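Input.
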Amino acid sequence: VEIGEGTRVWHFSHLLAGSRIGRDCTLGQNVVVGPRVRLGDGVKVQNNVLVCEGVTLEDEVFCGPSVVFTNVHNPRAAIPRMSELRPTHVSRGASLGANATIRCGVRIGRHAFVGAGAVVLSDVPDHALVVGNPARPVGWTCRCGERVQPNAEDAGLRCVACGERYEAMGRGLAPRREAP
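Output.
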């Protein structure tokens, strides 16, 4: 296991072979990482989370208490299926609320926000706010974590907290580029 400088690991946590944990991460109590998992820099994993094989957490991802990841689509105790592992990718700055369940094989976009208790069965676009079972989009979030709302001034979207402006890009949002 590779552990980056400044990373803190709390009581009763287990880091399994081949995993790489970035700098300045915090792994709470009773966390299991790996095997062969990748955590970027500045990741925060709260208590009671299993980050199983096949999961990648990019920089500055937040996993709330008791987040659940899966890695095999149709597990059976008597049938080995680790060769059928489906990778899960959580992009930079995303937040996963307490008790969220993330089905294997999905991608969670940059700065997306998964509400507490949500069950994510499909990809989540950049900056999307999803809640419920199954998780459904109910809005957008800024990279600061606050809601993004329509802005009447320029028909775009703006963060209610920090004022950052956004525009639709594909299925997600991206910071608005100002004209030169």
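The two ends are 46 Å apart (CA to CA).
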